[in-house]
Design goal:
Blueprint (H helix, E strand, L loop, with lengths): L4 H20 L2 H9 L35 H13 L4 H13 L3 H14 L1 H4 L2 H14 L7 H12 L4 H14 L2 H12 L7 H21 L4
């Protein structure tokens, strides 16, 4: 929403990435478990499904406890990617750790590689949203340009994806297209609980966007 991307959105992203870093240390164990299911790289060559969500990585998936944490886990990821540079899951997890550490350009490059090399990753709307956020953070929080293109890919995969709708609305606002911003946020509004803080904030943002859209259509004297 207008004026909020640079603070609450960065905070939300940081929280997601911090949570990912906690579970990401066990990522190689999870890949090993899924290797047995026939799709080691998430590239569509096997039958196993791909779930790149941070919360999807847990010992509940049948993976042993993490082998390493922090810098050791990152080093382990790098070694793994030297052996399997097209491993989509590994690229996504490394990109998340890079973003969590503030290495946004490196993170964006990792997401780019993951979506290029692994079709199953490229079909995950959430990964495209993360890619967009990394790209935006790499360019000072601006969503217009490549971040917006990634968000459009996400929305093409999932027309109701809440983060994609939210951030695309912010990108439209950034471009001065207030009517488009209001339309995207209105689609998101139907997914929020009436009376909630989120719902009320969206209503205010939509009202302001629609007001500005009407003003821009008025003929100048």
């Amino acid at each position: 929403m207008p004026g909020r991307f640079a603070t609450p959105r960065l905070t939300r992203l940081a929280k997601v990435l911090t949570a990912t870093a906690v579970v990401g240390a066990g990522a190689l164990w999870l890949w090993s478990a899924r290797d047995a299911a026939g799709d080691p790289a998430g590239d569509g060559s096997g039958q196993a499904g791909f779930d790149a969500r941070p919360e999807a990585v847990s010992v509940a998936d049948g993976a042993p406890p993490p082998a390493a944490s922090g810098a050791a886990a990152y080093d382990e990821l790098e070694r793994h990617l030297k052996r399997q540079p097209r491993d989509g899951r590994a690229l996504v997890f490394k990109a998340r750790l890079d973003a969590q550490a503030g290495r946004f350009e490196i993170a964006a490059a990792g997401y780019a590689a993951a979506t290029r090399f692994a079709p199953r990753v490229a079909r995950d709307a959430g990964v495209w949203v993360e890619f967009a956020e990394a790209r935006a953070l790499a360019q000072g929080g601006r969503l217009v340009g490549e971040p917006e293109q990634s968000l459009e890919r996400a929305l093409a995969l999932d027309a109701r994806h809440p983060q994609a709708l939210d951030l695309l609305g912010s990108a439209a606002w950034e471009r001065g297209d207030h009517a488009q911003a209001a339309a995207l946020w209105r689609r998101l509004l139907s997914q929020t609980a009436p009376g909630s803080e989120r719902h009320d904030a969206l209503v205010r943002a939509i009202d302001r966007a629609e007001m500005l859209a009407k003003v821009s259509l008025q003929p100048r004297s």
